[in-house]
Structures are given as C-alpha cells and as structure tokens.
Amino acid sequence: MDSSLYVYVEDVRGEGLEAVLDRITGYGVAGLTVAAAYRRARDVTPHSRPRVTVRGDGVHFPPPEDLFDGLRLVPPVQAGAEEEPLAALRLATAERGLKLHGWTVFLESTTLGMANPDVTVRNCFGDRGSPAELCPSNPDVRRYAVALGRAVARQGVDSVVAEALHFGTFGCGYQNERCFVQLGPMDVFLFGLCFCDFCIRRAADLGVNAEVAREECARIVGGVLDGDPPAQGEVTRAALTAYAGPEVVSYARARSEVVTSLVSEVSAAVTAEGSKLVFLDATGAAKGYMDGLPPSGLSAHDSWQLGVDLVALGDLVPSLGVLVYARDAERVADDVVAYRRSTGKELRAVLRPGMPDTDSAERLAAKVRAARAAGADAVDFYAYGLMPYPILDRIPGALSG
Ligand SMILES: [Zn+2]
Fold first, then answer.
1. Which of 160, 146, 164, 156 is nearest to 67 (CA)?
2. Closest C-alpha among 263, 384, 367 to residue 324
C-alpha cells in the first residue's frame, strides 16, 4: 500500500536532512509529502529546533519568473528558499527510493489577502472580513493558482498535493480570532459565503438570484448578531433550505462550478509539467479537527459546502486525498467508503497518528486496516514535525499490520 508522511521544510532544516530521512525511512513509508507552499502558523514542534516554530506564508523555492511575470498575485518567498531545500530533498529522496510529493496551500494567504483585500472573500454584509481567504472566483486568484500549481510541479515532485483549492470556511479567515456571539453551524456557514462581484456573476450565469440569496444571508446572520437565537443542528441541504430558503441553497451549490473549473485548470497545468494533482478535500478536517469526534454527517456528503463536487472531480483529477480526522476506526471506514463511491481514481486517506484522534499504536493500526479495507489506495500521516517521536513510532507497525 502506498503511503507518505507529511513533513515541513523547517523540520528538515532543524534536524538535518539525512537525520530526518534516516528516521522516516525507518517508518516504512513510501514517500514524503513536503510543504512546498505553506501559510502562517505557530506550532509546537516537539523534536525540532526551535521547539516552537513560527511559519510564514509562501513558497520554499524561488518562484520561476516566467510563470508569475505579469501576474498581480505572486507568492511570498519563505526565508531560506534561495538554498533550494526542495531540490535537495528531491535528490536525497530519489537516492533512497522514496517518493516526494509537493504539499501546496493554494487559496489561504494572509500576506496576499492583506495586501490585496479585493481578491478575498466578501461576505453578505459587503465586508472583506476574511483576509486569509482568497476567493476562487476571482480571475487574479485563478491565474495565481494555476501558476502556483505549475511552479510546484516544476520542482520535480511526484505529485502536487492541493490543500485549500476550494472555498474556505468562516472559521479559517484569519488568526487569533474572537467571537463572543453564539452562532449555530448554519449561521457560520452563511457568514462564510462569498458575495464578491465575481461570485455573484458566476451564480447569475447559472440562473441563481444572487441578490435574494445575499439578502437572506444578511437578514439571518444580522438577526443572530442582533440577538436572535442561533440555528440548531448541522448543515444539510434540507435544513438549510428550511432555514435560509431555496435561493441560498442554489447559490451555495452554484459555487461548485467555480471550484471544479479551477481544479481542472490547475490539474492540466500540473500534468503539463510532468506531475499529477492530488486534490485534498478538507471537509473531514473541519469536522474533526478539534477533538477527533466529527458530527454524524459523513465528510463526502458535506463537501459541497466547500464548493467541492466530488463526482465531477472524480472524473477530473487523478487522485483524491481525504482528511479522516476521527478517533473511531468504524468512522474512518464509513468516510472512506463514502468517498470511494465518488471516484474510481486513487484515494488517499490522511490520518493523525496522535492526539486528538489516536491514543495507541493499536488504534492507529485499526484505522489503517479500516481505511485499506474500505478502499483507500494509500494512507498518509500528518505530520512529522508536530508529533513526538513515540507517536511517530506507531507508524511502522500500523503499516505492516
Ligand atoms: Zn467570491
């Protein structure tokens, strides 16, 4: 079974290339998925130097001029990119027979969003309140995404693993966030919808009355901000129709055309550079991120909320990666089975080997077995620099079990 371990360039820099590869080779994984283009974060990194790592927005390689020349959005360049850490990893992994995948965060960048607020999501009140969220309908964002995919592919990676190549959620709009208003899941969903000019035009092209949808969103979210009780229950199409009306649901569903067409363009660009696209669906991460206890709705059934049309993408992209952030092996199996129905292509399940999802080696082994039995072609583990060594030591047993 194919497998990989997610790693950060900072991990490799802090511990040393050969030392990291020695250790990862010992885990028995088939490859590394390295963050080639990443975003801001502040992480406790238990076995690295420093012990707390502050990450920035941008790429870990010099952006090829021919790809970004004339584009409005150009990725920020990470410190140390001029040392070409990805090229060194490419050589060293090839020598060891390991694959190297290029993990790429596409549409989340506080740096780009703060400098270019008009390319970010605009909510139903007209606010540019999510500076980290670049809107996938925006033409400048789309050109940026295609160039970024091509640039990472050109690093010689076996695949470009696309994170955040879809609409985001309200909760991922920035950092150090505060909200002392109780919002239900449906309120949060409505608050996160983008109504920028490009989104409105695309919805209108599909026959959706975007202005009615926007007014309904503003009326409902505005009411909750004014003191109305929040919505109860999870987001489903039926519940959302009852809560916000059919036009809002039509508007939300029309977003999948934006994402599908963008993924198609990025995938073609990546293929043209001799690599392949792995599309990551973040739905499972949003559901189980905090505690590994996702609500009952399966991720594959809810990914439309990010503008992801799994059936359309199943035809388009050669590989689908799904984040299965759950404690329960049965839940892992159920999620993988539901995704398997939507694609006949490669299906990769991403698991967290430690907290909050996994409390023992036996549980990790059970989840790997469950993913495999449910039809996953590969398992990937997240992430080297974030997990203590004893947690990572669970991986070889889980892969061979
Ligand atoms: Zn938009």
1. 146
2. 367
Number of domains present in the structure of the chain? 1
Which tens digits make up the pLDDT trace of 184-241? 999 999 999 999 999 999 999 999 999 999 999 999 999 999 999 999 999 999 999 9
Question: Is 203 domain-assigned?
Answer: no
Distance 199 CA to ligand 1 centre (A): 4
CA dist 374 and 227 (Å) reads 45
pLDDT reported for residue 174: 74
CATH code of the domain in which 324 resides: 3.20.20.80
Please tell me the distance from the alpha carbon of residue 284 to that of residue 114, in angstroms, as a whole number: 28
- Strands 99-105 and 31-38, by their bridges, are parallel
Kindly state whether residue 247 falls inside one of the protein's structural domains.
no
Residue-range definition of the domain harbouring residue 284? 4-177+256-400
Whether residue 384 contacts residue 20, with contact meaning beta carbons closer than 8 Å, is answered with yes
Do residues 305 and 191 touch, judged by C-beta distance below 8 A? no
Kind and range of the H or E run holding 319: strand 319-323
Work out the end-to-end distance of the chain between its first and last CA atoms, rounded to an integer number of angstroms.
11
167 CA to centre of ligand 1 in angstroms = 9
**DSSP of 96-164:** TT-EEEEEEE-SB-HHHHHH-GGGEE--TTS---EEEEE-TTSHHHHHHHHHHHHHHHTTT-SEEEEES
Task: Give the span between the Cα atoms of 267 and 330, in whole angstroms.
Answer: 32
Number of H helices, E strands in the chain: 18, 13
Q: Does a structural domain hold residue 267?
A: yes
Asked, for residue 241, whether it belongs to a domain, the answer is: no
Our CA angle for 386, 388, 389, nearest 5°, is: 125
Structure confidence at residue 145 (pLDDT): 98
> How far is ligand 1, taken at its centre, from the CA of residue 214, in Å?
12
> Which residues of the chain are under the pLDDT cut of 50?
none
What pLDDT is attached to residue 207? 97
Q: Give the per-residue pLDDT at 318.
A: 96
Distance 320 CA to ligand 1 centre (A): 24
- Alpha-carbon span 251 to 137, nearest angstrom: 13
149 C-alpha vs ligand 1 centroid, how far in Å?
20
pTM over 0.90: yes
